[in-house]
Design goal:
The chain is of the alpha+beta class. The protein folds into two domains: 9-71; 81-180, no CATH class. It contains five helices and seven strands. The protein has helices at 12-38, 45-71, 125-131, 135-148, 163-180; strands spanning 6-9, 75-79, 83-86, 95-97, 101-108, 116-122, 152-154. The strands form two sheets. Strands 1-2-3-4 form a four-stranded antiparallel beta sheet. The longest helix has 27 residues, at 12-38. The chain is elongated and about 75 Å long. The mean pLDDT is 86.
């Protein structure tokens, strides 16, 4: 049986910024390499070399992200009978399984009180934090756990939908899961 999946795509502005970011970074690399060839030792050559490396990494990040999103047809979030896979946040924690979720909360964004987050409280938050491969992103998930009570928080900010549409889809799939898997006493 193929699971019924609700998909939300990335907003066009985010896609454009990936392309523009890659182009600007590649132009920056070209200019920096040109200047690097002109400068003599000690005249800021090391700093320029560091800028070249940073610009290259940023360009590669933008290109890799664009290719990955293009393969996914710019789908940034999948909500299925199994759980949620949120690609829009940039975290690499994979699918958040409904069986791990014990509560869903709607909370205000601490940095933007007009914005709202859907917070999935899970039985095993540290397992999801450990899935993240990047140390800085793991730290961000740890801070979300402290502030929101869960590392799994997402909004519609980067998605091509309203907050209500996202919230309704999450509750629909979560309630369907609970109906199919009642808690045994």
């Amino acid at each position: 049986m193929i699971p019924n999946v609700i998909r939300f795509t990335l907003i066009r502005r985010k896609i454009i910024w990936l392309i523009v970011g890659a182009i600007l970074a590649l132009i920056g690399v070209s200019v920096e390499l040109y200047l690097f060839g002109i400068l003599k030792y000690g005249g800021g050559k090391f700093i320029l070399l560091c800028l070249v490396v940073v610009s290259c990494f940023y360009a590669l990040f933008c290109i890799k992200s664009f290719i990955q999103l293009k393969k996914e047809k710019f789908t940034a979030m999948y909500i299925s009978d199994e759980g949620i896979n949120d690609i829009s946040t940039g975290n690499d924690i994979g699918v958040i399984l409904w069986k791990d979720v014990y509560e869903i909360k709607i909370m205000s964004d601490l940095g933007n009180f007009k914005g709202k987050y859907i917070v999935l409280k899970v039985h095993n938050p540290n397992e999801y934090i450990r899935r993240e491969t990047t140390r800085s992103k793991r730290r961000t998930l740890e801070l979300k756990l402290q502030y929101y009570g869960s590392p799994i928080c997402f909004s519609n900010r980067a998605l091509n939908c309203t907050f209500e549409q996202l919230k309704d889809a999450v509750y629909l799939k979560y309630n369907q899961y609970k109906d199919m898997h009642p808690i045994k006493s």
